[in-house]
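Structure (tokenized):
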């Protein structure tokens, strides 16, 4: 049976990365590891690792992405939580079998080779959930 092993990251959508860092980095004191452009997702991301997991601050870089629309509609805030799973294909099959609504029926592959899929918030108490298999 597929198994969830850990929380990989929590993603927060922001309208101004530099401004958001004055809270997460400067006020809370979490170390900024890296900032990166993610053209495939039309966003810029700040990675702040924390005890084996990560806070990710995500700022849309164009107006036409799903993320930009989310930000325009709801304002900055919690965007998704990402859970690490040992068998993403098995987990998606299990979720489908249990009637869970998925955004990605099949895993997608990121630039770094990670496989991921999103679960629809309608099935997860209003929280967008991402699954990762490293
Ligand atoms: Co994510």
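Design, position by position:
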């Amino acid at each position: 049976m597929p198994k969830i092993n850990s929380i990989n990251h929590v993603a927060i959508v922001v309208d101004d990365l530099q401004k958001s860092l004055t809270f997460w980095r400067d006020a809370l004191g979490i170390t900024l590891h890296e900032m990166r452009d993610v053209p495939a997702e039309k966003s810029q991301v700040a990675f702040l690792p924390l005890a084996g997991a990560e806070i990710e601050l995500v700022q849309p870089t164009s107006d036409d992405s799903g993320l930009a629309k989310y930000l325009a509609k709801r304002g900055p805030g919690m965007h998704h939580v990402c859970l690490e799973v040992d068998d993403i294909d098995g987990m998606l099959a299990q979720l489908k079998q249990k009637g869970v609504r998925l955004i990605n029926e099949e895993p997608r592959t990121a630039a770094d080779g990670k496989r991921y899929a999103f679960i629809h918030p309608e099935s997860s108490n209003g929280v967008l959930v991402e699954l990762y298999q490293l």
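Reviewer-requested clarification: The first strand starts at residue 4 and ends at 13. The pocket of cobalt (II) ion is lined by residues 9, 11, 80, 82, 130 (CB under 6 Å).
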